[in-house]
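Quality-control log, excerpt.
Job 1 of 2 completed; input and output follow.
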Amino acid sequence: MRVIFAGTPEFAAVALKALHAAGFEIPLVLTQPDRPAGRGMQMHASAVKQFALEQNIPVAQPISLRLDGKYPEIAQEAHALLKATPHDVMVVAAYGLILPLSALEIPRLGCINIHGSLLPRWRGAAPIHRAIESGDSETGITIMQMELGLDTGPMLAIENIAIADDDSTGSLHDKLAALGGSMIVKALRQLEQGTLPATVQPELGVTYAAKISKEEAALDFSLSALALDRKIRAFNPFPGAHAVLDGTIVKIWRAEQVTGVVDQSSTAVSGQVLAANAQDGVLLACDSGASVLRLLELQKPGGKRLPAAEFLKGFAITPGQIFSH
């Protein structure tokens, strides 16, 4: 089976590697244009492009596939390339560009998407982040047939995994990427044999995973410690949860809800430091003192991510100070 692959970040690259290792013919890869990244803002190729070039797979990087969009000539060129490239199916994973109906209809067997949630829960751009932020106990991968709606197509395969209490978006991403890679290989083999069933998504239980904004990562300590722990894990590694202490933005990478110090926090205001030492770490009152959050890993501007005990050696925090957003 000949597979055109469309994807951009590491999540997609894992699936591309799995398809390549399984022996599928990949005549073309689509990925987003190179972007500036890093402190020097040098142009960087996507993870998908890097692997494709290593394997001598042709790569195209159109900025749009919409014939009625801002770049109709570029879109027309991309359509012509797809039509001129012999293939049976297109596999899409975190591509980042809208595929219009005109593109979806080109492959003989249509376009199949690898989506990082248990559809219909968390359709949209940030399903991994939102699952953790919302306290879901499980998530998974859905292989689906693409149509015009946002992640609304028939489900071809679905598998779930548990979300651990200490999972961050980074750790859960890696688990789901590996699962997606194995599932798409199995699904395409079933598709070759004509044994891949399709199930219409249920109408109940639909939720939307809105794109993550940097503004969301500013922690509001009027929330409960449990809600804050989820947000910190959801925004790790991007965009990185943070709070302000005496005018300095401090990134918070890991934390945990703690019990047994409610009496101490009952008169504290939200975000107030209850303790800051090597033994306790940094304890903060949350939700007007109704719960307590222990900060486990922090980072000051220009510094490294450090365990709380190490962080406190170079950044003084004293009881009574108040973290704000």
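Job 2 of 2 completed; input and output follow.
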Amino acid sequence: MKEKITIRDIAERAGTSKTTVSFFLNGKTDKMSEETQARIAQVIKETNYRPSIAARSLNAKETRLIGVIIGDITNTFANQIVKGIDDFARDNRYQLIVGNSNYNFENEKGYVNRMLAMGVDGFIIQPSSHFAELILKIKQENKDVVFIDSQVSMDKEKWVKTNNYESILNVGTHLINDGYDEFIMITADPHVLSTRLERTTGFLHALETKGKTCKTHVVADDVTSDALRDLLYNELRFGVRTIIFVANCFLLPRVYLALKDYRNLMPDTIGLIGFDNTEWTNFSSPTVTTIVQPAYDEGYQAASILIDSLKGENKQIPNQILKCSVNWNESTKQHN
């Protein structure tokens, strides 16, 4: 069996100290001569040495690892968030450990415990509404955390989010002024995430200010297009102009499929609006109006806030709200 190479072995062969080798492996080479760096690099190449992240985390004050916990990694919105985090982290020589919680508290708890055991320097988390129970544990380990997309508290914590409430409030007002008579909202459980609650509340408030009411349907995350088709078939009334607002990006494509037989009625009789999904909503027929969140910017800014805090520079504003845009398309009337 081949003998395992250690940092001590690298140091002896390179004619330097273990501390110097450790600094080299962690990218701390500012005060290290090019000749020393070259010797260490050559020995690492010759021995095919691969440092153990777990071992380094036990001995170092920092691992340059960031724990990222996302609610649902399968959608494009989450992909763009993670890409934004990764781009900024990589530029600053940090690496990510990513977990998918499925908005489940027990999953969140498991990821936090495992990531703490791995020695992550800090966390970026898209939290469920129950995550507050885990904040104390993270703080007791002297780890920093930045919440993204949703937050568990508006006070004391660091977070980056978008203006979901304001965006749907303004869009809802536009739609009412367009002369739609009835309004249907389809949403997953709004109490799971603060973001969902902001969206549903914003839409309802827009209607209330104009004396309008809404038929709200809270559906399961795994609801099928067929089930949604049956639901809408029982709700839609021909001759009555109706807006359907889909509050979750993962539900929008299913609702669009459910409306297959009604698309020729858009936008004059039936209007459809949702969130994000621009990878297909700009190419469908008819194209679909969506509120677009700056997901990449959210991730990039969250990483910027966390790493700024880890470095102790305190140059970043700890709480930031980014603006959504509206991509007006054929499923509703056009607006400038």
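Post-run check on job 2. The chain is about 45% helix and 15% strand.
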